[in-house]
């Protein structure tokens, strides 16, 4: 049996399972028998008394700990003497058990303190007939006695229960002198680990209390939200019941009207049958009267042949002809009866038709009312579902904000850092949110760093490097002011607009620098201007020039926006007949609506408010329209022009969202050219053929010569990913050309 197993049996505790070979207990090398220790009977070793057990997380002074330790040594020595007062060894030495156990007893790789291990140990010991040494038995009795004396009802019961095992382990450390350093280091390692775990538990106690508080707060909020939900649900249920009652009432009215229509139809049928019988009786009576009249005439002619003074033969022939005419007339009369026997008088027919039409109109009106109520009910249900989704989304966002929110920064600290002091910082920070203020602060810091840098490092000649930056070596920093850079960019735009032979914008930019600064300084100015426009995101001229230069936006977007602003200024100047620079509020509104006929009324209102209008101003008050198009020295526009650009961006996004919804596809799906053509015509029917083809060429990146005509077979073969098509359209100048056709009202 090894040293570890011996310690584990006596201390009744679990030691770490170290990798070791499975050997016979009697032949384990390197582990001397207990009786081989020269000082096996001296048990004077220090330990920690249960009465001196330290609580969690308490630090003790070294001197006090040394005195306590000496006292504990004396107490343990007395306990040990008492424990070892009897003679329980062979020849004055410790018992060699279990050295004399049969060699067939093998140490199994089991946990010493587990139930399975104790059962196996008992099953091995009983057949061999060996007994435990008295020293082991007295140690076990001492351990049981100490455990029975403990008060396990306190919170520190586990700490108190561990102390007897410490004392037993200290006995073994002192008895086994050879292994005392190793066993002491093991004991110290466990003590350090226990102290570390105590510190960690003490650190987690406040977090536990805080977790309980947060849990209670969240429960209260959840209960409050559930109460609000119950109130809202009850209100919606009441509204639903009212709508159901209204529907029932309408259904009852509909049923009553249907009953009335049925009754009227029944009365009409009865009247129709009555009229038929009356008509037939009248016809029969007329026929009888005619027959009697004819008989009377025949008799009168037969009795007085000389009355007429005519020849009887001639009269007979005339009578025969008259009877033939009568027969023919009777046949025609019968034919008319057969053809028009079911015909009713026009007056009655028109009256019944009018009544039927009124009833049908009432029925249609009730149907329309019912359909409208049903649609309103469905809309309310959809609104309720969307409200629930928004509530859940807002609640999730609230939790995320509460988890990740940070305190607002004190921006007044930047007054002493920014060049120009408080006045310039207030001018820069006016009307900006925290995100924009961060951009302003980064631009100020970046501008300072740019001025400190004398040279730039060339980026090389790679394919990913823009053509105007392909250079290897050091490039001089020209250190211009922001005003000079803005002026230079405006001059570049002017030359670009008037340029006849169009070349790629990056090539044009470098050619422009070569014409103005010469081939020697063109590269230095290119690097300098590139660093400036990359840094200043808040400057409109620089940010838009950077977007066009890097291919993130087409230059037609900027040019079209400048043309729109110029056209708007021209319209205002034409109305200003006195050339005073003043327009009334009504004139300004008229110009905006005529220049932007497809803008919504609320966006026209936003432009009016940005121009200086507010509810207290009358339509006759004058506004200085020239101030709406002014720029400062650094090219920054006034809020009116910024609002125009902002609305243009929003309207383009709305236009592309309508296109995406009309297509009904996911962004990663492929779309064909005919589908995009059809969707564009559906959302913007006023598109002319030239503009439509231009949009399609930009979306599918097709040259003008490869653009197929509408209806060609190769149209279906032109496909691209929907996300790519929308990104290409986003880069170009996309505008609505007319209103979208409204669906007919029901």
UniProtKB/TrEMBL annotation:
Alphabetical list of PANTHER family matching this protein: TRANSLIN-ASSOCIATED FACTOR X-INTERACTING PROTEIN 1
Keywords: Coiled coil
A Pfam family matched in the record: TSNAXIP1_N
Keyword S-adenosyl-L-methionine: no
Domain of life: Eukaryota
Record's keyword annotation contains Coiled coil: yes
Boundaries of every Translin-associated factor X-interacting protein 1 N-terminal domain copy: 140-249
Annotated organism of origin: Odocoileus virginianus (White-tailed deer)
Protein name, UniProt field: Translin-associated factor X-interacting protein 1 isoform X1
Record GO cellular component, one term: cytoplasm
Recorded coiled-coil stretches: 219-267, 319-383
């Amino acid at each position: 049996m090894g040293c570890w197993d011996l310690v584990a049996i006596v201390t009744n505790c679990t030691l770490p399972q170290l990798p070791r070979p499975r050997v016979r207990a009697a032949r384990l090398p390197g582990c001397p028998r207990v009786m081989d220790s020269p000082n096996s009977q001296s048990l004077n070793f220090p330990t920690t008394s249960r009465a001196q057990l330290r609580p969690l997380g308490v630090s003790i002074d070294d001197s006090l700990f040394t005195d306590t330790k000496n006292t504990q040594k004396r107490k343990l020595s007395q306990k040990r003497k008492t424990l070892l007062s009897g003679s329980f060894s062979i020849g004055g030495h410790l018992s060699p058990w279990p050295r004399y156990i049969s060699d067939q007893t093998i140490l199994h790789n089991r946990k010493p303190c587990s139930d399975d291990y104790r059962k196996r140990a008992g099953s091995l010991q009983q057949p061999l007939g060996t007994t435990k040494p008295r020293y082991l038995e007295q140690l076990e009795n001492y351990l049981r006695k100490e455990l029975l004396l403990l008060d396990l009802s306190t919170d520190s019961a586990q700490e108190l229960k561990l102390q007897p095992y410490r004392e037993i382990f200290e006995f073994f450390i002192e008895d086994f002198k050879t292994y005392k350093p190793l066993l002491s280091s093991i004991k110290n390692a466990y003590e350090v680990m226990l102290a570390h775990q105590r510190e960690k538990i003490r650190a987690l106690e406040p977090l536990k209390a805080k977790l309980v508080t947060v849990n209670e707060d969240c429960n209260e909020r959840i209960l409050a939200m559930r109460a609000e939900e119950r109130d809202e649900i009850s209100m919606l249920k009441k509204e639903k019941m009212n709508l159901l009652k209204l529907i029932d009432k309408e259904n009852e009215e509909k049923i009553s009207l249907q009953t009335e229509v049925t009754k009227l139809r029944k009365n009409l049928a009865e009247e129709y049958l009555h009229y038929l019988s009356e008509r037939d009786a009248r016809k029969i009576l007329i026929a009888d009267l005619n027959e009697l009249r004819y008989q009377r005439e025949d008799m009168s002619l037969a009795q007085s042949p000389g009355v007429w003074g005519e020849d009887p033969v001639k009269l007979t022939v005339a009578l025969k002809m008259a009877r033939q005419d009568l027969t023919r007339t009777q046949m025609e009369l019968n034919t008319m009866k057969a053809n028009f026997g079911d015909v009713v008088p026009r007056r009655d027919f028109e009256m019944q038709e009018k009544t039927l039409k009124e009833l049908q109109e009432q029925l249609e009106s009730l149907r329309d009312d019912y359909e409208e109520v049903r649609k309103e009910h469905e809309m309310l249900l959809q609104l309720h579902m969307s409200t629930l989704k928004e509530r859940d989304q807002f609640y999730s966002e609230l939790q995320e904000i509460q988890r990740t929110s940070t305190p607002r920064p004190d921006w007044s600290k930047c007054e002493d850092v920014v060049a120009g002091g408080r006045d310039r910082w207030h001018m820069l920070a006016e009307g900006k949110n925290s995100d924009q203020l961060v951009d302003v602060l980064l631009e100020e810091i970046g501008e300072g760093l740019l001025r400190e840098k004398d040279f730039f490092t060339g980026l090389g000649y790679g394919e990913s490097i823009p053509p105007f930056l392909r250079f290897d070596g050091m490039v001089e920093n020209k250190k211009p002011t922001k005003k000079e850079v803005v002026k230079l960019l405006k001059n570049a735009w002017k030359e670009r607009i008037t340029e006849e032979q169009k070349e790629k914008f990056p090539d044009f930019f470098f050619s422009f620098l070569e014409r103005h600064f010469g081939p020697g300084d063109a590269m230095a100015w290119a690097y300098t201007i590139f660093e400036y426009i990359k840094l200043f995101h808040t400057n409109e001229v620089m940010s838009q020039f950077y977007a066009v230069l890097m291919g993130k936006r087409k230059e037609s977007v900027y040019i079209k926006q400048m043309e729109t602003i110029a056209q708007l200024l021209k319209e205002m100047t034409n109305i200003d007949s006195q050339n005073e620079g003043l327009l009334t509020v009504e004139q300004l509104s008229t110009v905006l609506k005529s220049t932007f006929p497809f803008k919504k009324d609320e966006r026209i209102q936003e432009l009016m408010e940005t121009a200086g209008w507010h509810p207290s101003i009358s339509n006759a008050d004058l506004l200085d329209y020239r101030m709406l198009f002014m720029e400062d020295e650094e090219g920054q526009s006034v809020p009116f022009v910024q609002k125009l650009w902002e609305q243009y961006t929003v309207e383009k996004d709305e236009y592309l969202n309508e296109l995406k919804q009309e297509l009904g596809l996911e962004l990663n799906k492929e779309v064909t050219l005919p589908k995009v053509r059809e969707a564009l015509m559906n959302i913007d029917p006023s598109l002319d053929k030239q503009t439509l083809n231009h949009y399609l060429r930009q979306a599918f990146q097709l040259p003008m010569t490869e653009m197929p005509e509408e209806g060609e077979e190769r149209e279906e073969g032109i496909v691209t990913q929907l996300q790519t098509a929308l990104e290409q359209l986003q880069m170009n100048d996309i505008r609505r050309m007319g209103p979208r056709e409204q669906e007919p009202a029901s």
